[in-house]
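User: Hello, can you help with two protein structures?

Assistant: Certainly.
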Amino acid sequence: EALWRTGQQDQALAVLRSLLNSRPGMTAARTRLARRLADRGDAAAALALLREGRSLAPTDLDLLAAEVKLLAEQNRQAEAAQLLEVFAGQQPSLPTCLGLGHAAMNAGLFDAAQAWADRALDQAPAEQRADAQLLLAEIAMRQGKQKKDASLLQAARQHYEQVLAAYPTHMVAGNNLAWLLAVDLNEPRPALELALRVRGNLPVSRLPLNLIDTLATVLRLNQRYNEARDLLEEAVGLFPTEALVQLQLGLIYAAIDNPQGARAAQETALQLGLPDERAAEARAALAAIKAEGESG
């Protein structure tokens, strides 16, 4: 990944091929290599690589998910949906339904994802319904953001609230709902209350990265800048190579009028590598810092 991010794509592919040659059953190497081949425009080679892997491990859900996503990217949605059905067989188990739902969702096949999530919910005993509800929530949230449909975002909210009604400190549901409230539904105050409740008394060293990201966001949106700064400076000390922490620290430094620190943090975040949407956020923050400096 470091080679790929620094523009050394041929070397990155060579490393992955070498790893796969020595360990043909290593799913992570196979799916990563297929992804990078597709990114380079060689979808046929990527698809062949995944199908070879599935011939070696026909029950591997990760390989299936990668193939389904690749087919969907090639506008072969019907073929991708059929592949899910064939994999499932006649009476798919609860874990299989959940896995296929996630695979369909990640490929953008939202109707298929909804159907698999509903099948999972139908067969889940009471103590396992949360997993299906979380999947339904994420499907609704992704669709809502993609379509800018407030009713879908509210549906996601309701699914998360159902999980939290049964498990008030459920970290995944609480984190995701707090982000949804703060970022998409413009309700930062209840988002902060929820994020703090889910965190409880856990020290920063034990917080998952996505909860640190959410806490920083809701603290900033509630203008509790000093708390956010303290959280993030401690997190940077613990996780210095986590790009999202650097991104959030840069946003806080900008909010408390520390442009030099903000610039350094955002540049570090981009060097470490961010998902596309968050990289755009970091670049926008850098542009704002530059514009502020020029106007000042």
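That covers the first. Now for the second protein you mentioned:
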Amino acid sequence: MNRFFERIFAKKVPATGLAVFRILFFTNLLLEVFHIFTYRKLIFDRVPFLESSEIALTIPLCIWMISLVFIVFGLFTRWATVINYLLILVYMSDLDMFEYHMDYVYTGLSLMVIFLPIDRVMSLDRLRRKIRFSSSKQEYEEERTVRVYAYFLPVLFGLGVVYADSVLYKITSPMWMEGLGMWLPASITQITICKDQFILNQEWLVRGLGYLTVLFETIFIFTFWFKPFRIPFLLIGIGLHIGIYIEFPIPYFALGSAFIYVLMFPFSWWRRIGSIFNRNSEYEPLHFYYDAECPLCLRTKWIIEYFDFRSRVDFVAIQSLPDQHELLKENTREELLDSVFTQYKGNTFEGLASYREVFKRVPAFWIFLPMVSLPGLQQVSAKVYRYIADARDTERCNEENCGLPLLRSPYEEKPTRIFRNLNSEQLEFNLLKYGVLILLIFQINVSLFSPYPKQWTEQMLSHLPERIQSPVNSFHNGMEAYSRKLIGITRHPVFMDGHFNKIRSFAVEYQQGDERILLPMTSAEGLPGEMLSGGTFVHWTFRVCYSQADDEALIAGLKRYTAYWLMSTGRGVEGQQRFRVTTRSDRPVFKWEKDLLTENLNRPWEEWGEVVWVDGEFDTSRQREL
């Protein structure tokens, strides 16, 4: 075991894949949070808009989204990841009615990335460090590699343990053991968003996908470490999650999981991708002449070089120009040092025009082109540039008046000694080893009570003295509660037989005079509507309309969703606002049948009754008995 940790700690690989994962995964989380923000009154209020939540919503959720933008761009990354994790604990870990299984992946990985070097490359923090730790005498170059465990850990805890626990449920499921685990949910109208029946009618294909899912999830945690399995697992995993994205209204789960697979790309791919982006442009570069002894000029050079990954701008130190250079025929060297000059194919540009030429060639700077090109804005930019240039002429910038102190980088390659027998590298290794073991213990504590091993776990506990059983159970329950909330380690009974025993769909239609509007929980075809995605889909489907939910849960859900719709559309709950409610029960079949989805779509809707808002009060007296 120790040798395994030493191997994944010692090996260094390109950091590009980790950066791409950061950008994709946290963009996906940003979209998830934006969904929560959009429906915040529905999710958090006791009664949307009428009985508000006890916690603040708008400003903290905006701060959360801003922190995610910072993570995506790699700016103040460490602080942004801490803020993101804390807000997850407040606004996602306690969602309760609106939680769904992806929330726990967000929680665990958001905690993990606080300690991983996700900003090593493709981040604004890398540029900040270069500017901070460089001077006119020495240019700081940070390594572009990370330890390989930074790739393995998110895959292990974002996919591996999730699959392993899920399999402990699937192998006790007749539906999954018959190969129908993909087919049946896709044949239920309240679950699927795709009404295409062709693939579902290919029995061998859907059974094969069901069995492949069980086999894949069973062996994944034991084999993804090994190079020969990575590309096959990469293709299977991304393929399965693309299918989930197409088939079910949980897009951010599908995309978020697929983005974790980015970390399984062969490292040679990242080297090739990096070489493509860093390849010199086939076009003649713009020659940018700069003062190599001016720290502010060097800052400008470093910033442009950082974003100019195609090398469209070539920097030339004025001090290195020979006396015969064509620029020195028309200008003295002092004049060149006091302004900015560029050249392209014999044309010379000075001052603001030089920056305009740079902006044209570097896509990251295109946003600034209107400032230096459009009438009005161009004149303002010229005055600003002239003011800066004149100030610089007054006191020429050098190491004495605007120098950069040469500071120690936090990514110093040499280990820092902390105690006599412990340095920073040894501390990192111990944190890795014991941290992983502790997390696995938390997962084992949870998975021992999953359906398959539960009988043996309970049998072992039954042999313990009764005075010991109670503390053991309390300890287990406490560990499970804290691990679920703080690190996202929990059970994963996703799409099991009991979810489909007696499916009910409900459609709610607003009726006012001649006006008829179908509320967006259901589409016109009878599939999940545009309001249902992720947590809202799980809440409406399994906690409001679920076959085993009692009528109180259904009525509370109708009250919540109708109040939200009325208030968010500006109609209000005053006067009399009527809603017609219809219901339809799909026919779940645990043996494969052709055209089951089509049959369920064609099943008739039945009247359930009517709910009415009367002067702010919710009336359900016009319902029928189910």
